[in-house]
Amino acid sequence: MPELPEVETVRAGLSTHLPGRVVDRLEFRHPRTSRRQSGAADAPRQDALTGCVLQEPQRRGKYLWVPAGNDDGASVALTAHLGMSGQFRLSEGGSPGPGWERHVRAVLRFRDDGPTLWFVDQRTFGWISVEALQPHSPGECVPPSVAHVARDVLDPLFDADLWNRALRRRRSTVKRALLDQTLQSGVGNIYADEALWRVRLHPDRATGRLTRADAAGLLAAVREVMAEAIAAGGTSFDALYVNVNGSSGYFDRSLAVYGRAGEPCRRCGAPIVRERFANRSSHFCPRCQRRPRYAPAM
DNA sequence: AGACTGACCTGAACGC
DNA sequence: TGCGTTCAGGTCAGTC
Fold first, then answer.
1. In terms of Cα–Cα distance, which of A5, A1, A4 is closest to A230?
2. pLDDT value, residue A245
3. Which nucleotides on chain B have any atom < 7 A from a protein Cβ?
4. pTM of the entire structure?
């Protein structure tokens, strides 16, 4: 599933193929994929990209956007979220590759002979939209779809002190807080479980009872696991294809708890537990990550 | 206002 | 074999 490291790998892949290229047109192939495209009179339409030059792809958390414009600078952005199964693929010759043609949801064609960009998304949780870039903070513009998302944990402008206080002010549990993209972005179910294991925190620990040091340690663990995943993901993607398929080497070798229910904890040997959690699963070591004794949401 | 749940979606894996 | 069920989970509208 694409979380921050996977989206960053996609962003880096797009970065080597898109900047400087002139868009011919964006085509949608599935109505759900264009559901975020605003119909407001003053909002850009999908054909606003035509003739624009693409710039360096940007990312915040799991959101991606490619600023585009003319000689005066970028005014619009091709914005995207991969959802749970979205991929960007590049292909020479203007046709999709075998194996993923069935799930093509959008196509970006260019006014050059370079590769065509395909948005492939089996489950259509992902989306693409053309949006106006709006001032967000000094010297920074983001698309409206991204404005409500907190800075991600790898953002140089991420304020760790502010985050530390905000986390401990929450009346929730630590895993719920990690998945809340308005507190910090980029963390999904997999890396939340991995980070919690690293700092021996049970997913149901109350955020309000964490110490300042607990929270600082958790942030360090989240950053660490993501940095390692980016490093691993970067080696497992073909240079020509920007691929998000969940099968990178990292997933096979390095996960400590996610998907390892019943297997021994890499630290203490106790069988990893999988537990239902808010329509998904939590994975943890019952010995290293002791369940809190107080009521869960205190 | 903040916390939380269910709906959205498809295909693989599973049980009988 | 085949059919129905379960599972995967990011986000957001809706609810409390």
1. A5
2. 40
3. 2-11
4. 0.93
